[in-house]
Structures are given as C-alpha cells and as structure tokens.
C-alpha cells in the first residue's frame, strides 16, 4: 500500500521514533509534524457523534493523548505501528478519564438488551455509557490482550479492517476473524457473563 502524497512514509516515522528513543528532543516535534494529520483523523473518529457540549474536540484529544505519551516520562516505540497502537490507547484513556470526571451515567439504551454491533453504534453516537465498554475491554484484555488492542484500533481509532491489519502487521482475513471473535466476547462480557 502506497501512502497518500501528504502522508509520511512509515520509515520516516520509525527513524524519528528511533531518534526520540536515543534522547533527541527535537524528534518529538518532528514526529508531531509528521503524524499530526493522521492523529487528528484518529481523534475525530474517536469523537464521532460526541455530544455537542463536549469540552474536548479532536485537536484537544490529540494534545491530551500526546501529553500522556510524551509528558513526564517519554516512552520508546519500536515503529510507526507501535506508536499508533499506543496513541489509540492514550486517546481511549483520555476519553474514559474525561467520562469519569464528568460522572456520566448510562444513557437511554441498556447495553444488555442490544446486539454488540448496535451497542457499539450507540456508543459511537454517545447514547450509551462509554465506561461500560471500557470495563469490558479491560476484562477482555486480561483474557486476550491482542483482541482488546484490535477493538481499540477499530473502535477508538476508527480504523478500517485493512488499516487495522496494516498497523498490526497481519492479514485482513485474520483481523476480520479476530474482530468477529472480539465482538462476541465483548457481547458476553457486556451481558454480565464470563469469558
């Protein structure tokens, strides 16, 4: 897959991450320049359907996630895919922490009464409790961290199956199979069952 003309080459990002890991402080600024547009797209997907009065916007979400990734103790990343997985997780944490701080309660629909796809659509429209999904994802991660990571990339980052496969360096068929499995396990967890 050839990147779009305005998208940085994965090697450029990986080299920048290596410089950052070696202590080059300017590399963080270069990395932000290289990936800002992509991170903003991820943030916009994560906030799709958020209530109009939400105090975060996609730009704010990118900045909050960036601070979590590089704030006090910058993390090391092996490559672009590793960084994007970490960015998706950081955005998830920002949104969940924001929801907790606002003390949101469950929305108008009961997740136990809906199939998971409809429930996820409802969460995307922010009609349901994002905290319930976070708790279910945490429990899923205890059983299968890879499936939880896949859900984070698909749901919180808004990546397609093909994009998720590229980030995880896997085939689209295996990602599709694991996506079906992850949805089924999450449904079971949301229904109060065990995995």
Mean pLDDT comes to 77
How many strand elements? 0
Low-confidence stretches: 1-5, 104-114, 124-128
Write the element-wise H/E pattern from the N-terminal end onward. HHHHHHHHH
**Shape verdict:** globular
Number of helices: 9
Q: Could you give a short account of the major beta sheet?
A: none
Radius of gyration: 17 Å
Number of domains: 1
Write structural notes for this entry:
With 195 residues, the protein is an all-alpha fold. The protein has one domain. Helices cover 67% and strands 0% of the residues. It contains 9 helices and no strands. It has helices spanning 10-21, 26-46, 58-70, 80-102, 116-124, 130-143, 145-156, 161-168, 172-190. The longest helix has 23 residues, at 80-102.
Could you list some keywords that capture this structure?
195 residues, single chain, disordered N terminus, mainly alpha, globular
Gist of the model:
With 195 residues, this protein is mostly helical. Helix content is 67%, strand content 0%.
Topology:
Blueprint: H1 10-21, H2 26-46, H3 58-70, H4 80-102, H5 116-124, H6 130-143, H7 145-156, H8 161-168, H9 172-190
Helix pairs in contact: 1-2, 2-3, 2-4, 3-4, 4-7, 6-7, 6-9, 7-9, 8-9
């Amino acid at each position: 897959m050839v990147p779009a003309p305005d998208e940085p080459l994965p090697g450029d990002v990986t080299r920048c991450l290596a410089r950052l890991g070696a202590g080059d402080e300017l590399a963080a600024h270069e990395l932000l320049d290289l990936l800002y547009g992509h991170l903003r797209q991820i943030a916009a997907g994560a906030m799709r359907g958020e209530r109009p009065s939400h105090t975060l916007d996609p730009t704010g979400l990118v900045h909050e996630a960036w601070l979590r990734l590089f704030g006090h103790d910058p993390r090391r990343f092996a490559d672009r895919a590793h960084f994007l997985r970490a960015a998706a997780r950081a955005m998830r944490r920002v949104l969940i922490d924001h929801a907790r701080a606002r003390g949101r309660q469950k929305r108008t629909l009961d997740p136990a009464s809906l199939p998971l796809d409809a429930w996820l659509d409802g969460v995307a429209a922010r009609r349901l409790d994002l905290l319930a999904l976070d708790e279910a994802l945490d429990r899923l991660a205890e059983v299968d961290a890879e499936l939880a990571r896949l859900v984070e990339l698909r749901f919180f980052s808004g990546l397609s199956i093909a994009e998720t496969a590229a980030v995880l360096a896997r085939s689209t068929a295996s990602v599709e199979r694991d996506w079906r499995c992850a949805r089924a396990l999450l449904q079971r967890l949301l229904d109060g069952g065990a995995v």
